[in-house]
Amino acid sequence: MLVNFRPVLVEYLESHPNVWVQFHHGLMIGVMNWCITGFYTCFGPILTNTPAWLEPLLEFIPGYKIEITLGAVAVFVYNIVSFVIDPLVVLLSLPLSFFYVNSTWMIYASVENPMAFFIKYFCIAAISNLLVHFFVIKNKTLVMQGRLYIPFVQHTIALLHLMFELGYRPIYYQEIKEEVEELAEKKKK
Fold first, then answer.
1. CB neighbours of 70 closer than 8 A, spacing ≥ 6?
2. Section 2-26 average pLDDT
3. Does 5 fall in a domain?
4. Which residues contact 75 (CB under 8 A, 6 or more apart)?
């Protein structure tokens, strides 16, 4: 990791105590980030004349060219943040990034009211996430606890946690789990 992200990961695991909650959270955060990308895409293309050198890079699906939108810029920013935290996360999340950019552009280009579409799915994901926090694990979200930086790194947290569960950096992940257990024991006393 290029920056010390350990305190954030400890805090995340402390507030999401079991694997199923973590899986649900990762899925809902992915949907919410996809919807945020869609919101930005709905503002339309930000370049009216795409430079010739850039056009081949905008054809992820042969025969289907996308436009550069604020949504594409948002995905680029997600990847920059992820790279600063852990470069391997970016490599493994590139297919997801391409999906975000392509699918939001396709929905923008084909759905009658794309903003309402993205708002609907964002609300479903956010409400689902809140219900799990309030009724299953009985705590507030990290943002509600005053950690306002979380929306900017939640994408990376969810991806890193998934990678940890799949076996990425097992010793580091075990150390984080042990730190969470120590914090839980201190709170009991």
1. 40, 41, 43, 46
2. 83
3. no
4. 37, 97, 100, 101
* CA 63/CA 120 separation, integer angstroms: 30
Q: Is 98 part of a structural domain of the chain?
A: yes
- The reply to whether the predicted model has a pTM over 0.70 is yes
- Residue at 161 is within a domain: yes
Reported as a single tens digit per residue, the pLDDT across 131-153 is 998 998 888 888 888 888 887 88
Count of domains for the chain: 1
Give dist(CA 179, CA 96) in Å, integer.
31
Alpha-carbon distance of 65 to 60, in angstroms, equals: 7
3-state SS assignment for residue 52 = coil
Angle of helix 19-41 versus helix 150-165 axis, rounded to 10: 130
Quote the CA–CA distance of 93 and 102 in Å, as a whole number: 14
